[in-house]
TrEMBL record:
<dbReference type="GO" id="GO:0008760">
    <property type="term" value="F:UDP-N-acetylglucosamine 1-carboxyvinyltransferase activity"/>
</dbReference>
<dbReference type="GO" id="GO:0051301">
    <property type="term" value="P:cell division"/>
</dbReference>
<keyword id="KW-0132">Cell division</keyword>
<feature type="active site" description="Proton donor">
    <location>
        <position position="119"/>
    </location>
</feature>
<dbReference type="InterPro" id="IPR050068">
    <property type="entry name" value="MurA_subfamily"/>
</dbReference>
<dbReference type="Pfam" id="PF00275">
    <property type="entry name" value="EPSP_synthase"/>
</dbReference>
<keyword id="KW-0131">Cell cycle</keyword>
<comment type="similarity">
    <text>Belongs to the EPSP synthase family. MurA subfamily.</text>
</comment>
<protein>
    <recommendedName>
        <fullName>UDP-N-acetylglucosamine 1-carboxyvinyltransferase</fullName>
        <ecNumber>2.5.1.7</ecNumber>
    </recommendedName>
</protein>
<dbReference type="GO" id="GO:0008360">
    <property type="term" value="P:regulation of cell shape"/>
</dbReference>
<dbReference type="GO" id="GO:0005737">
    <property type="term" value="C:cytoplasm"/>
</dbReference>
<dbReference type="GO" id="GO:0071555">
    <property type="term" value="P:cell wall organization"/>
</dbReference>
<feature type="binding site">
    <location>
        <position position="331"/>
    </location>
    <ligand>
        <name>UDP-N-acetyl-alpha-D-glucosamine</name>
    </ligand>
</feature>
<keyword id="KW-0670">Pyruvate</keyword>
<dbReference type="GO" id="GO:0019277">
    <property type="term" value="P:UDP-N-acetylgalactosamine biosynthetic process"/>
</dbReference>
<feature type="binding site">
    <location>
        <begin position="25"/>
        <end position="26"/>
    </location>
    <ligand>
        <name>phosphoenolpyruvate</name>
    </ligand>
</feature>
<feature type="modified residue" description="2-(S-cysteinyl)pyruvic acid O-phosphothioketal">
    <location>
        <position position="119"/>
    </location>
</feature>
Length: 424
C-alpha cells in the first residue's frame, strides 16, 4: 500500500518566477474514454500525469487497451478491447469512471459500470446519465451497485437535461455519435472541456453542431476513426496559480500556457478585486496587485459562470481582502468543508446555507490542516504559503489526483514546501 504523505510548508516567503500550466485533467479523462469509440491507435498530447489519469488508464488496460506515455504524448491502442466491465476497486476511486458508460455503450452496445466514487463534495447522483442513455434506447439495470447496460442499438432522440451536467453531456455525446439518426441534447453543458471532447469527436468523423451552446445536435455515424489531438490547458490549474500570484504583495509570478478565453469570469473577478494580468508573452501573464485587495461577491454557476472548482482558491484570497466578501456555492452542496480548516488558520469565515461570508483581512497562522477534497486541498496549500510559521497539510493524495508536479512547480518559484511521510 502507498505510504501516506503530508506537505510541510514554511509560509510568507515571497514567490518569484514562471509556472507552466499542464493539460486539463477534465479534458483528458473524457478524451481517454473517447478512444474506445473507434478501435485503433491514438496519440494524446499534454495529458497530465496525475492520479485520476492513471486510474482511468488502469481501467482502460483492464478493458484491453494498451496505454503508454511516450515522449510528449500518451499513446492508447484500443484495437483489442476484450472486456466491457469496469472493476469496482478502480471505479470507486474516481467519479469520472461514469464516462465509460457512454463510451462503452456507444461503441459496444453493452457496459457494466459501478456507481462511481470520487471527491466527497456532494451527493453527485448519476440520474441524468441513466435517463439520457435510456432515452437513446439503452436498457439499464442496477445490480449490486453496478449499472448493467445492454441494447441492440441506440436510436437518436431529443434529451433535455434538468441541469447542464458536464459529464452527463459528455456521456450522451459519446453515445450519440454512434447512435442511429439525430441526438439532440438540450440544456447541455458549455464548459471548454465539453467543447474539447466535441472537437475531438468531430476530428474522429462525428457530425456535431452547437458546441458551447445550450443545445448540441449530433448526427450519428456508423463508424469513426482514431485521431491525434492536443489537450487544452487546465483552466482550474491556471486559476490556482493566478490566485497564488495575487496572494502576497511581494509575489511576482508569471503563469504560462493560459487560455484566457476559458477564464473570463474568474479574471473579471480578479479585476474587481484590483488584480490585473499583464501579458508578457503569448499565453503567459504576470499577476499584478496593489497593496490592498477589494472584497467581492462570487456566485458559482455552470460555464460561463464562475467555476465551482475555483471558489476555494478565491476564498483563501478573499481572507486577504479589505472588508466582507460573499461566496455562494450553487453546484455542489458540500464544497465548504475547507472552511473549518481555514478557520483553524485564523480566517474569519462563517457559512450560512450556501454562502460563505469572509471578513478580511486576516493574517493566517500556520497549523496542521487536512485536504478535504482535490481543489480545497490545493487551496489550503496556498493558504499555507501565505501564512506565518509552518503549515502541515495532510491527505495530500487528494491534491495529487489533479495537479501535475504541484510541489515541484511551487518550489520552482521559491516556495518552501517539502513532502514528508505522514506517521500518524
Ligand atoms: C464535472 C467536473 C468537476 C466539476 C463539475 C462542475 C469532470 C471529470 N469533473 O463534474 O471537476 O466540479 O463538473 O463544473 O469533468 N447532477 C445530478 N444528476 C446527474 C449529474 C449531475 O443531479 O446525473 C448534479 C450534481 O450533483 C451537481 C450538478 O448536477 O449538483 C453539476 O454536476 P456535473 O456538472 O455533473 O459535475 P460532474 O460532471 O460530476
Amino acid at each position: 500500500m502507498e505510504r501516506k504523505r503530508k506537505y510541510v510548508i514554511k509560509g510568507r516567503k515571497p514567490l518569484k518566477g514562471e509556472i507552466e500550466v499542464s493539460g486539463a485533467k477534465n479534458a483528458s479523462l473524457p478524451a481517454i474514454c473517447a478512444t474506445l469509440l473507434s478501435p485503433g491507435v491514438y496519440k494524446l498530447k499534454r495529458v497530465p500525469k496525475v492520479k485520476d489519469v492513471f486510474c482511468m488508464l488502469k481501467i482502460m488496460e483492464h478493458l484491453g487497451a494498451v496505454c503508454e506515455f511516450e515522449k510528449d504524448y500518451l499513446k492508447i491502442d484500443t484495437s483489442k478491447i476484450k472486456e466491457l466491465s469496469v472493476p469496482y476497486e478502480l471505479a470507486s476511486q474516481i467519479r469520472a469512471s461514469i464516462l465509460f458508460l457512454g463510451a462503452l455503450v456507444g461503441a459496444y452496445k453493452s457496459a457494466e459500470v459501478p456507481l462511481p466514487g470520487g471527491c466527497a463534495i456532494g451527493k453527485r447522483p448519476v440520474d441524468f446519465h441513466i435517463k439520457g442513455l435510456s432515452q437513446l434506447g439503452a436498457e439499464i439495470n442496477l445490480e449490486k451497485g453496478n449499472l448493467i447496460v445492454k441494447t441492440q442499438k441506440l436510436k437518436g432522440t431529443t434529451i433535455v437535461l434538468d441541469f447542464p451536467s458536464v459529464t452527463a453531456t459528455e456521456n450522451l455525446m459519446m453515445a450519440g455519435v454512434l447512435a442511429e439518426g439525430e441526438t439532440i441534447i438540450k440544456n447541455s453543458a458549455k464548459e471548454p472541456e465539453v467543447v474539447f471532447l466535441g472537437e475531438m469527436l468531430k476530428k474522429m468523423g462525428a457530425e456535431i453542431k452547437g458546441l458551447g451552446d445550450d443545445t448540441i445536435y449530433i448526427k450519428g455515424k456508423k463508424k469513426l476513426k482514431p485521431v491525434n489531438i492536443e489537450i487544452i490547458p487546465d483552466r482550474i490549474e491556471a486559476g490556482t496559480y493566478l490566485v497564488l500570484g495575487a496572494l502576497m504583495e511581494e509575489n511576482e509570478i508569471v503563469v504560462k500556457n493560459i487560455n484566457k478565453e476559458h477564464l473570463k469570469t474568474p479574471i473579471l473577478k480578479l479585476e474587481e478585486m484590483g488584480i490585473t494580468l499583464e501579458r508578457v508573452d503569448k499565453n503567459a501573464f504576470k499577476v499584478k496587485r496593489g497593496k490592498t485587495i477589494n472584497p467581492v461577491k462570487i456566485i458559482t454557476a455552470p460555464y460561463p459562470g464562475f467555476p465551482t472548482d475555483l471558489q476555494p482558491f478565491f476564498a483563501v484570497l478573499l481572507t486577504q481582502a479589505e472588508g466582507i466578501s460573499f461566496i455562494t456555492e450553487n453546484i455542489f452542496e458540500n464544497r465548504f468543508l475547507y472552511v473549518f480548516e481555514l478557520k483553524r488558520m485564523g480566517a474569519d469565515i462563517e457559512v450560512k446555507d450556501r454562502t460563505a461570508i469572509i471578513n478580511g483581512p486576516t493574517s493566517l497562522i500556520g497549523s496542521p490542516i487536512k485536504a478535504t477534497d482535490l481543489r480545497a486541498g490545493a487551496a489550503l496549500v496556498l493558504a499555507g504559503l501565505c501564512a506565518e510559521n509552518t503549515t502541515d497539510v495532510y491527505n495530500v493524495e487528494l491534491i495529487e489526483r489533479g495537479y501535475e508536479n504541484f510541489v515541484e512547480k511551487l518550489s520552482g518559484v521559491g516556495a518552501e514546501i517539502k513532502v514528508e511521510e505522514d506517521e500518524d
